[in-house]
Amino acid sequence: MLTYPLSGSSSELVLNVLTMVLTRGKPLDRAYSEHFSGLTLNPSEQARITQVTGDILRRLNLYCFLVDIEPEEFDRLGSKLLNGWHVFHGLDLPKMQYSLQIEQAKFDANLEQAKMDPVLWDGCPQWLDLLGQAQLGDKWPAERAALAEQPKRYLRVNELKCDREKLISRLQKEGVTAVPLDDVASAIEVTSDSALFRTDAFKDGWFEQQDAGSQLVADAVGAKPGMRVVDACAGAGGKTLHIAAQMQGKGRLLAMDVEQWKLDNLKTRAKRAGAHNVETRIIASSKTIKRLKLTADRVLLDVPCSGLGVLKRNPDSKWRDTPERLPVLIELQKHILQSYSRMVKVGGMLIYATCSIMPEENRHQVDAFLAENPQFSLIEDENILVSERGFDGFYLAKMERIAE
Ligand SMILES: C[S@@+](CC[C@H](N)C(=O)[O-])C[C@H]1O[C@@H](n2cnc3c(N)ncnc32)[C@H](O)[C@@H]1O
């Protein structure tokens, strides 16, 4: 965390980004891009701004409690919260133009009270705590605490262009320090605050920013050169590009989604990555899927989910989402699993994945699917828990089609 306070102008930026997220419901990444575009911020100052903003969102209710404000009051009282954040972290106050002071004695009393309340301490909204307890039982407190930590920055080396050692040494020449991860063969961890997307290594397609947990999901696909592979919920292609590298550009990789703008984004990224065997296709109706019946060696279903495994990275969503969204997602996951599994050929593999840690979206879905579909058999599944691996939380299940 910070060792000296934010400057006045960085404090204003943090407040503006947070106001956009908390009072206008903008996703954090869009609020960043609106505020950062056109500014030439020093990379370490930009890193400090995102660290503070992210940390405030990860423990918003705690910081609000300490300075006696409600999240809804953020647009009027945000400077008080930012001052409280600095006090909590033992820093001097930032020099803001308009700044509401905090009452130290009240802050200290609130702090003592907060220390007795682990749910508040971990920045967890009540609905999420209830859900986590119901779904994960004893494992939940460790996950809840791990989800309140700052995420690390991971890259995936693009093996179509280089290897980890070459990437690390090229990045070093561009002022970025990074180390390889022992347990994820394609991943490196960035240990400096450098601006990655301005590097020539990025422009040349040598890496993508991708959490190490997400890299484990694409690893599980085990695609080989010459295979026919479908990434059926490809989005902007985080996992598609990884699969393309496994295939060494040989074979057919079909990336599908219901949103054309995401596939357009994927095409740009595939071009930069030199992934020439990627074809994109919009899912316009059920016919798009039916036409591919029993054709694929591998089908990855990285389904839409609650995202409750990636709250370290997307902490804004826990203040926007509600538990009512979950049953709708669960129905959609069921539908995708049932209908898109038809594309897997006999002897081929279906990989179901989410970035959630909740069994209802994970193993329960797989069990229900297998009960209704004896033509599939479970090979293995894995819960990638945030508290155990330190990555974002994911789930993956590998199933083989053993009959038509
Ligand atoms: C978890 S995201 C995928 C992330 C992506 N695989 C990656 O690694 O970057 C889920 C994706 O499913 C897409 N989606 C939503 N409903 C869908 C449907 N009925 N069929 C296929 N994709 C769908 C969403 O647009 C979203 O891009």
UniProtKB/TrEMBL annotation:
The residues that the entry says bind S-adenosyl-L-methionine are D257, D302
Name the SUPFAM superfamilies on file. S-adenosyl-L-methionine-dependent methyltransferases
InterPro entries reported in the protein's UniProt record: MeTrfase_RsmB-F_NOP2_cat, MeTrfase_RsmB-F_NOP2_dom, RCMT, RsmB-like_ferredoxin, SAM-dependent_MTases_sf
Query: Recorded E.C. number(s)?
Result: 2.1.1.-
Which is an annotated GO molecular function term of this record? methyltransferase activity
Major enzyme class: transferase
Q: Which GO terms describe its biological process?
A: methylation
- List the active-site residues: C355
Return the PROSITE patterns for the record: SAM_MT_RSMB_NOP
What keywords sit in the KW lines? Answer: Methyltransferase, RNA-binding, S-adenosyl-L-methionine, Transferase
Domain (SAM-dependent MTase RsmB/NOP-type): residue spans on this chain: 143-404
Top-level taxonomic group: Bacteria
Concerning its family, UniProt says: Belongs to the class I-like SAM-binding methyltransferase superfamily. RsmB/NOP family.
Name the PANTHER family for this protein: NOP2 YEAST -RELATED NOL1/NOP2/FMU SUN DOMAIN-CONTAINING, RIBOSOMAL RNA SMALL SUBUNIT METHYLTRANSFERASE B-RELATED
Q: What is this protein called?
A: RsmB/NOP family class I SAM-dependent RNA methyltransferase
Q: From what organism does this protein derive?
A: Shewanella vesiculosa
